[in-house]
């Protein structure tokens, strides 16, 4: 990642802590993972990862990263993995282990990602960003008429997220995959894609309060802070 591609907007500690409190149960273990990261210790872009059950330490670690994207595991991770990197970050390469589906102990979220259609590897325009948020609200309202509870609504920086609380085993027999496929069939169009690939339990997800930094920051396609919008 070239210098011009690094985030120009700072991360927000309060928003990160707000996200952790909304997404994670007390004592839950989550992996923090950043792609194309630059840190004080290592200026060459690389991947960093760590396992956390202390949200203050997770926030402090995230604040020290500049990266294309900073993510967390949504679903609770096997606590044994704390021994890989206990409330700290480590530099990893393609041969180092990260959280797999078999490391998830249960499902706590059904995640819906609305992403505006645009060329790969760049940030969204304001109009594209607004379309994704509007589509997420449309999905929320549609599911609400069918008895679904109120979700978390989040701004991913380029698109929009809905997060519905669930209580399912890690191997859910395809329930989440089926729900996402049905929503994608109904709500994906030429302007906004509803991602149906976010069904696996070990999926990483944007850490709200951090900056989405795809491509260079330009006036038309700026880097933006991700954040929880409603429901937290």
Biggest sheet features: 5 strands, antiparallel
Distance between the termini: 33 Å
Query: Roughly how much helix do the residues carry, as a percent range?
Result: 10-25%
- Runs with pLDDT <50, length 5+? none
- Fraction in beta strands: 25-35%
Largest sheet, order of strands side by side? 4-2-1-3-9
Radius of gyration: 17 Å
Report the principal-axis shape.
globular
- Give the count of helical stretches: 4
According to DSSP, the number of beta strands is 12
Average pLDDT level:
93
Note the topology.
Blueprint lengths: L12 H11 L6 E8 L8 E7 L2 H9 L5 E5 L16 E3 L14 E10 L9 H19 L7 E4 L4 E9 L6 H13 L4 E3 L9 E3 L4 E2 L11 E2 L1 E4 L2
Antiparallel strand pairs: 1-2, 1-3, 2-4, 3-9, 5-7, 5-8, 6-7, 6-12, 10-11
Helix pairs in contact: 1-2
Describe this structure in words.
The protein is α+β, with helices and mostly antiparallel strands and 232 residues long. It has two domains: 3-105 and 202-230, no CATH class; 107-194. The chain has four helices and twelve strands; from the N terminus they run αββαβββαββαβββββ. It has helices at 13-23, 55-63, 126-144, 175-187; strands at residues 30-37, 46-52, 69-73, 90-92, 107-116, 152-155, 160-168, 192-194, 204-206, 211-212, 224-225, 227-230. The chain has a five-stranded antiparallel β-sheet, with helices on one face. Strands 8-5-7-6-12 form a five-stranded antiparallel β-sheet, with helices on both faces. The protein has a two-stranded antiparallel ribbon with strand order 10-11. A hairpin with an 8-residue loop joins β1 (30-37) and β2 (46-52). α1 (13-23) crosses α2.
